[in-house]
Amino acid sequence: MIVAEQKPVEEIRQVIAPYERVLLLGCGTCVTVCGAGGEHEVSFLHSALQVAQARSGDGIHSFLEYTVKRQCDFEFLDLLTDKVKEVDAILSLGCGIGVQVVAERFSDIPVLPGVNTSFMGMAKEWGVWDERCAACGDCRLADTAGICPITRCTKGILNGPCAGTKNGKCEANKDMDCAWILIYKRLERLQQLEKMRRYYPPRNFRVIPRPRRIVKKADVKVGKDNG
Amino acid sequence: MDNYQVNRIKEASYGHSIIPPCQAACPLHMEIGEYVDLVAQGKVMEALQVIRDGNPFPSICAYVCTHPCEDACRRSQVDEPIAIRALKRFAVEFGGDRMIELEAVTTQSEKVAVVGSGPAGLACAYYLRKLGYPVTIFEAYSEPGGMLRVGIPQYRLPREVVDTEVQRLTHMGVEIKTNTRVVSLDLLFDMAYKAVFITVGAHQGLRMGIEGEDSPGVIDGATFLREVNLGLKPSLGDRVGVVGGGNVAIDAARAAVRLGAHKVSIIYRRSREEMPASPSEIEQALEEGIETMFLVTPIRVKRENGHLNVTCVKMELGEPDADGRRRPIPIKGSEFNTEFDTLITAIGQAPQLSEDFRLRIGRGSTIQVDPVTLTTNRAGVFAGGDAVTGPATVTQALASGRQAAFRIDDYLQHRYPLADTGEKKSSLGELSPKTIEMIKKIERLEPPFLPPEARVNEFTTVELIYDWQSAVNEARRCLRCGMGAEILFQDKCATCLTCLRVCPYHVPYIDDAGSIQIPAEQCQACGICVAECPAKAIVLRKPYDRRHIDEELEHALKSAAESKSKPLIIGFCCQYGLFGTGALASLWREGKAGIWIVPILCVAKLEEVHILRAFEMGAEGVFIAGCGEQCSRENTAFWVLQRVEKVRKVLAQIGLEPQRLQTFNLRIAEADAAEALDNFTEQIGGLYLNSIIKQEVRT
Fold it and tell me: What number is the ipTM of this complex?
């Protein structure tokens, strides 16, 4: 799941300043789950902006609230066509993908980000989210006992641990587990410690030409003799 | 009376909630959850209104109801059931039931006769009158009330209570003819009555069928109680035996004690577990020194030298019989003799019906009726109460009277009888062990009783009334069955698992299809998941969530805007238990300048947007006052603090001092709470002044 965090109200007030009528657009998928941009947070932001406006006395904005199922698909955005006509800007509380898809769908209106898209991760417990995947496009989890050193090791090294590990924690942050110690312990449990003894060559970043695209559909031709 | 009210009486509505077990078990299907909750909020008059909507004579039920609701109460799976009847009595006494006057207007021309003025007859007359019919009640005895007057002893039901209800009926225009025994129904129809409701009760004591039963000194329980209740003081002698194990036997025994008998023994052929009398009545009888002879039955009575020589036989319990109780079997050769001055037989009662009524009679001499329409074999003649069921409870009789009124209305208006709405079932099953484990155990508070030594000498009421605080605390124990959370918008649910993670009772679960389910029978309606759901997909079945708070907040803000007193402070305060007492109540009453209270039904239901809304509308300070560790729900303070922190962060970003938002625990020593609140008010006053100065400087 994509994890994001709502931007501070002051920053949001600055980006919406030029626009009188603003649509606060939530997304009902990842940012709902991580409590950054679902319907609840849209209402919260709406209230906060109203307070800021009322207390500073310089407010001219009017806000509309709406939350779509998923901002990253055009089809869900079709529901917004009428609402978009009534506003001067859209503040998307979707992730960076959502913002771009909305912008692509509604080319005549400014679309602004309301959250900082942070990482891909999981809910550790209520109210705590941890990063787990960097989308590197070259998954090595089979070698590392299901624990990703790219995201969970501060240095992202492929042959760990480094000399900065102490009591199972990372030198960069004493509260953070050393990913390579976790990998070692889990391999030990799985009786696969031989994987620790191998050398992993540096990854080839040339396999990741950006922006990436995955094409699943086959290139086929339907014709007289075909199909 | 407009249609709305008629409908409300006919079909008790419970909003969107699932019928809780207490309501399903009540013969009148009263909205028990509703009025218990209102008592918990200290809203006694509103509670009484709910009670009156579902019960024609709440003051009577408040004394004598056998409370099947308490037997069904799911709190008994946690500790002990809610003391529902005692709470009703509290609401009736403190809500001002005595002051209520009822009016009724005659809108129908068809006269209806009610034969018998017991609870069923009175209830039937009440509802028929509300529906606009002219009603006459015929009563054979000198005073109206039936069993309420001649069956139930005064120490359980004071006569003034019956008098008040009867007077109210008379005030509504019901005509009551006492000392008038109806001997022929034809005569009633000749007198232009278009429908007749027969509810003559079951006053005839059943005979034991043993030798010597007709000896002087042997009296049946119903007759004995009637004599006592009509003011006679039958002389009993010192030693009194009472045969039977039902409520009449207990009543007779306790009345005998009050008439001065020194030794009163209850003779019952089974053991205490099988006694049909209400357990609390048995307990009170034992407290009053009444003795018991279990597994014994009299087989012969002989009068000798002014005493009764009673031969009894010992019994043992055999196989369960048709009604599930173990059948008593005499033990051969176990006969023994015992002496009494009086023997009261209370082994059952049957109706006594004039043959001229020409009604079809069934088992136990009762009138045969259609259970849905209450019609008898004769057109226009309906029957109900004990005369149909045999001896039953007051509440059952009231329900039967109400049912009869509406069926008579159907008959007179030539309507096809409406589907029977009498049967109500609760779909709520048992609480799961892990839910029970998390529910706070809170001891049941009983209303005080007169001490046994004070009550055996007279017929004054034994049970006293709760004080205010005890009633509120007892009512707060209610688990609010059926009012809980539901995912109203499944399409919005992102299956984020927030509800599952925040629920203190481990109620939500993931089903096989991977969807979240919040089973209604486990939910404790604390509202935490409603406020935390990031998709706003959950609501409470009873709208005590954001919908209720929105309304209350807007109301307070409107009043505040009109008053213009500054600085404006909004206090979100738990409504449960606090209204009548404490620092908050004094605040409320005094209406301290600028402070406006928004009552909410548990602070755990308060959402960040409500707090922000208060600031938006000009509040200089906001406080949230919960009841702390007194809360009957779990974790509420934690969630309030979470939300407060979130709002404080935003306030800081906006440039407002975070200390403008505070939380208080109103259950700490009251003086401390008041002081803390005063400090806060002062602080907000300072901040307000500062902001004005800043503004002045700017301009």
Answer: 0.92
Q: Can the peptide bond before residue A161 be classed as cis, meaning omega within 30 degrees of 0?
A: yes
Q: How far apart are CA B485 and CA B541, in angstroms?
A: 6
> How many angstroms separate the CA atoms of A69 and A83, rounded?
16
**Cβ neighbour number for residue A146 with a 10 Å cutoff:** 12
Contacts of B618 in chain A (CB under 8 A): 54
Do B111-203+351-412 and B204-349 show the same overall fold?
yes
Count of residues in chain A: 227
- The pLDDT tens digits of the residues spanning A97-107 come to 999 999 999 99
pLDDT band (50, 70, 90) for residue B489 = confident
Nearest-neighbour CA in chain B from A39: distance (Å): 5
Going along chain A from its start, the domains and CATH numbers come out as: 2-119 (3.40.50.2300), 136-206 (no CATH)
Q: How far apart are CA A50 and CA A44, in angstroms?
A: 10
Binding-site residues on chain B for chain A (CB distance < 8 A): 491-492, 494-498, 501-502, 532-536, 608-609, 612-613, 615-618, 642, 646, 650-651, 653-656
Structure tokens given for B587? 């605040």
Assign domain B111-203+351-412 to its CATH architecture: 3-Layer(bba) Sandwich (3.50)
Q: Which of A126, A128, A129 would best serve as a mutation to test chain B binding (most B beta carbons within 10 A)?
A: A126
Cβ distance of B615 and A54 shorter than 8 Å: yes
Q: Is residue B422's pLDDT more than 60?
A: no
CA-CA distance, B121 to B129, in Å (whole number)? 12
Q: Nearest chain B residue to A55 by CA: give it.
A: B616
Do residues A83 and A105 lie in contact, with contact meaning Cβ atoms separated by under 8 Å?
Answer: no
Contact call for B612 and A44, based on CB within 8 A: yes
pLDDT tens per residue, range B295-320: 999 999 999 888 999 999 999 998 88
Query: So where are chain B's domains?
Result: 19-100+430-475, 111-203+351-412, 204-349, 485-540, 546-698
- Are A43 and B609 in contact (CB < 8 Å)? yes
**H helices present in B602-635, as ranges:** 608-616
Asked if B396 contacts B389 with a C-beta cutoff of 8 angstroms, the reply is yes
